Amino acid sequence: MEAPYVGTGCYGMPPPTIPTPPGLEAIYSTLRRLYPDQPNPLQVTALVKYWIGGPDPLDFISMFGNPGNPMEGIPPHWHYVSSGLSDLHGDGRVHKYTGMDGPSGYGFELTFRLKKQAGQTVPPAWPAELLQQLARYVFQTDSILCPIDHISWHAPLDYTPSNITRQQQGLDSSPIHHMLLCEDPQIHPINTQLGRVEFIQVVGVMAEELQAAQHWHCKALLDLLRKVPPAGGPWLVTDMDRAESVFEIQPQLQETVSLGIEKEGSSLSGVAGKCWWEAYSPNGSFPRPASEDPNLARFSIPQRNKDLATRYQVLPSISKSKTVRGDGYDRESTCASAVSEIVRTRTLNAVHLRFGYEAALMLPLAIRGRLRHGRHFTFTSSATNAAITLVTGNVTGSIADSEHQYAAYGTWLQILITDEFLQRLDKDLDELTRPHDLELPKEYRWPSDGLVITVLPNDK
């Protein structure tokens, strides 16, 4: 058996005769029905539980051997299932109980399917570490992961502590650097006495596949992977030894993606990355960036919801109300005037946007996949509370309108992009689709429109 990573141990699942917490028993019962021949699989478990100060939120990751169905393009693989994102105990030690009709804990557990290598008899430990890292992200940010989400990872998924020998030996690294999420094809949602739990499968993909999911639609890209067994097949099994993307295996699928983007646009409504904005003065002076104003920073934009379209609600038009109610404050209260002074919606004459390299590469997607189709796109800063939303005249309720092209609410900037300006932006920023040709930093200026965009290296 491979050595478990630091802070965990490998054990078998407790037999049915040993009492287990109600939420955990509901998961175990589901897995026993799926794998009746493996009632006591290997598990990776946190030795110091999360509720007593341990670093790993997942109590257990169960590991099963799945025979697949090679005749249908499903290879033999290892099936990993987490326990801990949902409420296992029902006593408030980790999750607040919200009733049987609501979600249990975060309402989901994570799964992963890894293709077995020839002669492999024991499941590798690194996928369990990967699931723990994703769980830490959920607990630390209070973000909800959903099917058809995507996760930019920028490193081989198996680069984990238990796999450090592979890295030190300089062995070829896998091009599977990113993840898409889908519903697990075998484990359906369950209703427990602590609430509902769904099982979300993590699918390893290459950079070209992630980009297609971002520029078009994650569900559509997953459907393509299901039709190509070497790229995932019907159950979307991750093969870390895969060397070719789905577009290299079946080149005609690239045209399918291009036509889909042209016809449907992108379902991605926003990204988080390195971005800043500030009011721009023609004389070259730059006021302190709004994102760094301590008075404004206290009113942070909600971060809980994974969908940026929901996270950033479209606000009433600036022409209807010069101030916007602050969260938790009544405009008629005694402190209303002070709050309104802080969070007043402001009109700007010109702005300077600064993007890190990776965030800037999403600008063509925002223009061609969203704005061209009358939709909005939001960039949120990964370092501050700042946000930048690009809208068109078709987006109703925006605080930016034809009379106020640049409007800010606290650290949130909205920019109205007219149809005519959209065409020029598309043309001028086209080189961002060929990032290898860029010399950074790179500045783009549209003086008559009051806009400056600077693209910076990621380390700036």
From TrEMBL:
Q: Which SUPFAM superfamilies match?
A: Suppressor of Fused, N-terminal domain
The record's annotation in Pfam families points to: SUFU, SUFU_C
Residue stretches making up the Suppressor of fused C-terminal domain: 256-455
Q: Which InterPro entries match?
A: SUFU-like_domain, SUFU_C, SUFU_C_sf, SUFU_N, Suppressor_of_fused, Suppressor_of_fused_euk
Residues forming the Suppressor of fused-like domain are 54-242
Source domain of life:
Eukaryota
Keywords, comma-separated and alphabetical? Cytoplasm, Nucleus
User: What is a single cellular component term in the Gene Ontology annotation?
Assistant: cytoplasm
* The keyword Nucleus belongs to this UniProt entry's keyword annotation: yes
Q: Provide the protein's localization.
A: Cytoplasm; Nucleus
Family label:
Belongs to the SUFU family.
PANTHER family noted in UniProt? SUPPRESSOR OF FUSED, SUPPRESSOR OF FUSED HOMOLOG
The protein here is known as Suppressor of fused homolog
Source species: Exaiptasia diaphana
Q: What is the lineage of its organism?
A: Eukaryota, Metazoa, Cnidaria, Anthozoa, Hexacorallia
